[in-house]
Amino acid sequence: MKNFQFYNPVRILFGKGQIAALTAQIPAGAKVLITYGGGSIKQNGVYDQVKAALADFDTVEFGGIEANPHYETLLRAVELGRAEQATFLLAVGGGSVLDGTKFIAAAIPFEGAEPWDILAGKAKVASAVPFGAVLTLPATGSEMNSGAVITRVSTQEKLAFSSPLTFPKFSVLDPETCFTLPPRQIANGIADAFTHVLEQYLTYPINTPLQDRLAEAVLLTLIEEGPKVLENPTDYDAMANFMWSATNALNGTLAAGVVTDWSTHYVAHELTALHGIDHARTLAIVLPSMLRYRQAGKLEKLVQYGQRVWNITAGTDEERAEATVQATVDFFERLDIKTRLSDYDVGPDTIRQIVQRFTERGVKDLGERQDMQIADVEKILTLAL
Ligand code: NZQ
Ligand code: ZN
């Protein structure tokens, strides 16, 4: 096992009616900036519950944070937060609202001229306004991690940052807030969480049986519970199991002490940046080709994943690995998520564009062995056409 430090200070308030419990988690006298998305919280009663929980606080609101949150939009929230002297932020929504709020939290006290520097890796987060979250979409794990991914529309860039200062102080996970999710977002959430687990698991073995089994447990639970949620989004127990699985997929426990490979996410972000394809769908496009192209380096883990999660036991290791990738593709397709670039009308031009921007960005040495170069990315995307 590799050496590691594990730190996760997020208090989880899980279950029915828990929005009311957030009142006790916000410092008395705080000026609270409530952030939210395009309005789903106003239609499903979540907004009313949040307002009731904040009845004793001075509040101000910023709505309209879009999916794949825009830097340009978030800067307006930063302005509002500064003008109103907000001392606490409360994000209410999916991963985009939570990520956007992490950025707002870091950008309000930022002293440089251009807060994008936080995302471009040119400036560290020196302080952040404390914030909490009410999660309404199980998918990203943003509710229990310190990362965020932000899109800059003017340059079509989608970049990530993380800081120990941008963990939520608390996150409310009430499965009932997710009952109004449309099938497309539920499917996205399942595929995103599934891929988070695989990127921390499908590398090479270094004798970490506990982390492996924890990862397999999350995968198996998503395979079992995900379709139940799709079938009936008001099935409380299924939603609760799905929600907690998605949180556990990316709260740091699975990554502790193991070798990870985030190259699928890294490459897939470009497809959202350039074409606006939903995050989870870009993963379902890139992951299968990534696994096929790099089968040799991931062989032992692919065989283990196939055996323990999909009961694939026949054939040579290579045949089993291929059958395992195909089982993963079939799972995505059963969720009604297409897995090829051509399904989204994306062709070779986009591959050339990605190669060009990676070249400009000086991207190199991706993957668990830091041996994947831009030419490999080009071949992987070509396999996904
Ligand atoms: O904006 P509203 O009206 O709220 O509607 C949203 C949005 O249109 C809707 N929605 C959310 N909860 C709902 C609901 N509709 C009905 N009922 C509810 N209860 O769903 C739509 C999508 O929301 P969004 O927040 O964009 O989805 P998701 O949670 O999948 O977040 C995706 C973003 O997270 C980033 C992605 O890159 C993408 O920008 N990620 C963040 C990560 C992290 N912080 O660790 C890791 C991930 O890999 C990912 O990159
Ligand atoms: Zn993801």
From TrEMBL:
<dbReference type="GO" id="GO:0008106">
    <property type="term" value="F:alcohol dehydrogenase (NADP+) activity"/>
</dbReference>
<dbReference type="Pfam" id="PF00465">
    <property type="entry name" value="Fe-ADH"/>
</dbReference>
<comment type="similarity">
    <text>Belongs to the iron-containing alcohol dehydrogenase family.</text>
</comment>
<feature type="domain" description="Fe-containing alcohol dehydrogenase-like C-terminal">
    <location>
        <begin position="188"/>
        <end position="381"/>
    </location>
</feature>
<dbReference type="Pfam" id="PF25137">
    <property type="entry name" value="ADH_Fe_C"/>
</dbReference>
<dbReference type="InterPro" id="IPR044731">
    <property type="entry name" value="BDH-like"/>
</dbReference>
<keyword id="KW-0560">Oxidoreductase</keyword>
<feature type="domain" description="Alcohol dehydrogenase iron-type/glycerol dehydrogenase GldA">
    <location>
        <begin position="9"/>
        <end position="175"/>
    </location>
</feature>
<dbReference type="GO" id="GO:1990002">
    <property type="term" value="F:methylglyoxal reductase (NADPH) (acetol producing) activity"/>
</dbReference>
<dbReference type="InterPro" id="IPR018211">
    <property type="entry name" value="ADH_Fe_CS"/>
</dbReference>
<dbReference type="InterPro" id="IPR056798">
    <property type="entry name" value="ADH_Fe_C"/>
</dbReference>
<dbReference type="GO" id="GO:0046872">
    <property type="term" value="F:metal ion binding"/>
</dbReference>
<dbReference type="GO" id="GO:1990362">
    <property type="term" value="F:butanol dehydrogenase (NAD+) activity"/>
</dbReference>
<protein>
    <submittedName>
        <fullName>NADP-dependent alcohol dehydrogenase</fullName>
    </submittedName>
</protein>
<dbReference type="GO" id="GO:0005829">
    <property type="term" value="C:cytosol"/>
</dbReference>
<dbReference type="InterPro" id="IPR001670">
    <property type="entry name" value="ADH_Fe/GldA"/>
</dbReference>
